[in-house]
Design brief:
Helix content is about 30%, strand content about 25%. With about 160 residues, it is an alpha/beta fold. It starts with a strand and ends with a strand.
Length: about 160
Amino acid sequence: MIVLQAPTAADTRRVGRALAALSHEGDIILLVGPLGAGKTVLASGLAEGLGVTEVLVSPSFILARTYADGFMPLVHADVYRIGTSGEFMDLDLVDMAREGLLIVEWGDAVAALLPDTCLTVEISVAGSGSRTIRLRPRGPWCDRPLEELVKAVHLEREP
């Protein structure tokens, strides 16, 4: 696990941009954290890093949005309003994103339904607004230079 301190929303966005550079076709990133933690901010950084020119908007009410104008397709889902595992499976998000990147906000709610190859990004916020970002890689993410991310975004790594 890698733990970063992101003092501002701009830092959180930079983490997303740096993660995009490490992403491959078919990858899944689960974003976990309380309401207002910065999940959509980090997802926006991922979209920017993939070259998406459209403004990324939280898909809370439509559940998923697809952005096709970047270096690879991006499927951005928000499963906060999903009631059952069947509802999630009916969305067929993994298949939709097979040739691109799937980002799932509130991903902990559906992690058991996804392949065990995801990168889980846990975001927590301190009273000052500073965010702690924990990267928990699995599968192919374990072989990627996530340590380099710390240098790329010039953030402090927790000991």
